[in-house]
Specification:
This protein is mostly beta strands. The chain is built from one helix and ten strands, in the order αββββββββββ. The protein has one helix at residues 2-21; strands at 28-44, 53-54, 58-70, 75-92, 97-117, 123-142, 145-148, 160-171, 176-185, 201-214. Strands 1-3-4-5-6-8-9-10 form an eight-stranded antiparallel barrel. The chain is elongated, with a radius of gyration of 25 Å.
Length: 215
């Protein structure tokens, strides 16, 4: 009986030690991040002989929050919300000058794949997936005359945008990570005022460099 008690006690202690050394990994984790966003618009005048115009990028701080759901050993489903600002500054032509400032909130859904698993669960990862964006506010200035670009009788931009986004990043064992991402807008976000308005294609693209933490 004494031998049996000693054996059971030893087994329980070993099981406890092994459980502490190999903690159960959670399936879902919350992520918070912030970084720098550089966004611009590609403008296609749709006029014969005039090439598409790339506006000057606007660089702003970009906050974000999201989550990560582990699907398999190396695959994850990631989603999040980011705020970023886009537009063209001092877009000038011979007879006029335009300026656009657009502020978007973007919801992205990505599949995340771990390329390299290092020691202590550090890893290099890539993500890819679609996104949808909502234009929270926008300003259009024409020759110094500002108007609301997102609502009202002179609304020049649609409220919704969508596209594809990609990123590559690295996560440390402590949960800190950094990533570089690119989002390519696929929608025509411009809303012509009338049939004589030939600026019918303006898609928003942006680069981001973010640093974050996964709880």
């Amino acid at each position: 009986m004494k031998y049996l008690f000693t054996t059971l006690t030893s087994s329980l202690l070993l099981t406890s030690i092994n459980a502490q050394e190999q903690p159960v990994e959670r399936k879902f984790r919350v992520q918070v991040e912030a970084g720098i966003s550089s966004a611009n618009m590609i403008i296609d005048p749709k006029i014969y002989g005039v090439d598409p115009i790339k506006g000057k990028a606007i660089v702003k701080v970009t906050p974000g929050i999201g989550g990560n759901l582990k699907l398999g050993k190396k695959t994850n489903f990631e989603f999040g919300i980011h705020h970023y600002q886009s537009g063209t500054r001092h877009f000038e032509r011979k007879f006029y000058k335009e300026e656009f400032i657009l502020k978007y909130v973007r919801l992205h859904t990505h599949f995340k794949y771990q390329l390299i698993n290092g020691k202590n669960r550090s890893n290099l990862f890539i993500t890819a997936g679609p996104y949808a964006a909502y234009l929270g506010s926008g300003t259009f200035t024409y020759n110094g005359w500002p108007v609301m670009a997102h609502k009202g009788p002179l609304q020049t931009y649609k409220r919704f945008d969508h596209g594809l986004a990609y990123s590559i990043g690295y996560m440390t064992p402590a949960g800190f990570y950094s990533r570089v991402s690119y989002a390519h807008g696929l929608a025509n976000v411009y809303k012509p005022i009338d049939e004589t308005d030939l600026l019918v294609l303006r898609n928003v693209n942006n680069w981001m460099f973010n640093i974050g933490y996964q709880f």
